[in-house]
Amino acid sequence: MKAKVRNRVLLALVCTALTIALGACAGDKASENTSVISIGIPQDIEDSLDPHKAVAAGTKEILFNLYEGLVKPDSDGNLNDALAAAHTVSEDGKVYTFTLRDGVKFHDGSLVTAEDVKYSLDRCADTSSGDALVPAFSAVESVTILDDKTVALTLKEPDKDFLAYMDVAIIPASNEDPEGNPIGTGPYRFVSRSPQENFILEKFDDYWGTPAYIDRIELKIIANADSIVTSLNGGSIDMFARVSQAMTQQLSDDFEVLEGTMNLVQAMYLNHAVEPFDDVRVRQALSYTVDPQEIMDLISDGRGTQLGSSMFPAFGKYYMEELNDLYPTDLDKARELLAEAGYPDGFSFTLTVPSNYQQHIDTAQVVAEQLKRIGVTADIQLVEWESWVSDVYAGRQFEATVVGLDASSLTAPALLDRFRTDAGKNFINYSSQAYDEAYAKAQASTKEEEKTAYYKECERILAEEAANVYIQDLPCFVALNKKYTGYEFYPLYVQDFSKLRPVEE
């Protein structure tokens, strides 16, 4: 009897061991079948994982995969219903009504409710204090729940373009820590973050829309531009967006180079609060000297689109190509203006550039050489991205900088609002009564043609006053390992990882 019991125990142990072994094998097999792609990004997510507080373009393009709004832009620039199944806009353009999609889940498994939508929109507008967390939402008068599936947003003034802002993230009202515990509804969910090292995302299996193809996204921070090609060719990353033209020529045959546009306004941005950039004649002299076409020829084989103001071509009806001809290269005119401003022998200044963006470094170097032709010396100072954000952008402690500014939505204000005299994002300290008046008229107008005309007047004022030395909308080169396909360019500064997929063998 004891022998039989002992045998049964042994048999049970063997079965248990076998089960564990088979489970381990099954686990290994599942691991092998999990698709993973490693993507290099030029900086860590430093400002905020809270989608309503994030400012940096590099942060927002990652959060695009985690969060969604009531509507969502596609790669053709269309705004499609997302968390909303449908929407209507009142005839006077003041009331936006959204019917919520059934069964949409947050990453924590809870269902999206009308209360979550109201909470998110109220949070952006902060209707209680009037201090909008998202600047565009200062136009919101109220957010009202009409029933379990319907929410209405009422504006203080009519604005039929406000739908573009309704892509703002909807987050759970129950989440008390959006910064430390990001929870959205997007095709990917947040897993972990190691500062200055990586940012891990995983496919959200309960996603309401078309599911992502790749199970795991490993974003690796490569802040040193010189390491990008080595990391690609060495196999530590499979993709890097916005590589320079020179980098593309150093890539192995394992990579395909895709070309689009960056959807940025690249310029030499000047601090109007410091001399000599407080003098319009000096700014105009620099504009007559800097040759955008020569820059494009030297750094990207002529690719790119010249810009004459703070608007790029993806914004079709607002883009003014004619402003590109406002400052043809004219060194004599430039010297004349400098002499009138009291700088007949030129001057020197510090040109601060983020060290993790090779395209901006290359542009700055060409600009510095061009400015020597009129006796102006630009001393290039490379700084880490975090320093650029804190000192240049937030602190406004700089003389000039070369960067690209993006648009957060497909609206003219997304690019033009920052130049209002009292705008919080007006890091160049630009102040123009004419500009403020034109912008206010654009905001107040309810007629589409009139509104567009006022926005174009804003662009013309920026150009004529040489608010900045405008250069180009950079070409965007994406290095993608040929093991993957599906990358899509958007008319906004975003990365849509959900479209990436392994190439079928």
Describe this protein's structure.
By secondary structure, this protein is an alpha+beta fold. The chain has 3 domains: 67-167, Dipeptide-binding Protein, domain 1, CATH 3.90.76.10; 188-262 and 476-502, Periplasmic binding protein-like II (D-Maltodextrin-Binding Protein, domain 2, 3-Layer(aba) Sandwich); 265-473, Dipeptide-binding Protein, Domain 3 (Dipeptide-binding Protein, domain 3), CATH 3.10.105.10. Helices cover 29% and strands 23% of the residues. It has helices at residues 2-33, 57-63, 114-125, 228-233, 245-248, 280-289, 292-300, 331-340, 358-371, 385-394, 413-416, 433-444, 448-464; strands spanning 36-41, 71-73, 79-81, 84-89, 95-100, 140-147, 150-155, 188-194, 198-203, 216-221, 239-243, 255-261, 265-270, 305-306, 348-354, 377-383, 400-405, 468-473, 475-481, 484-485, 501-502. Strand 15 (348-354), helix 9 and strand 16 form a beta-alpha-beta unit. Helix 6 packs antiparallel against helix 8, helix 7 packs across helix 9 and helix 12 (433-444) runs antiparallel to helix 13. The protein starts with a helix and ends with a strand.
Features:
23% strand; alpha+beta; six-stranded mixed sheet; 29% helix; Dipeptide-binding Protein, domain 1; 505 residues; 13 helices; 3 domains; seven-stranded mixed sheet
Find the CATH superfamily of the largest domain. Dipeptide-binding Protein, Domain 3
> How many extended strands?
21
Proportion of residues in β-strands:
15-25%
Query: Which stretches are low in confidence, meaning pLDDT under 50 for 5 or more residues running?
Result: 1-30
Q: Could you please say which CATH topology of the largest domain applies here?
A: Dipeptide-binding Protein, domain 3
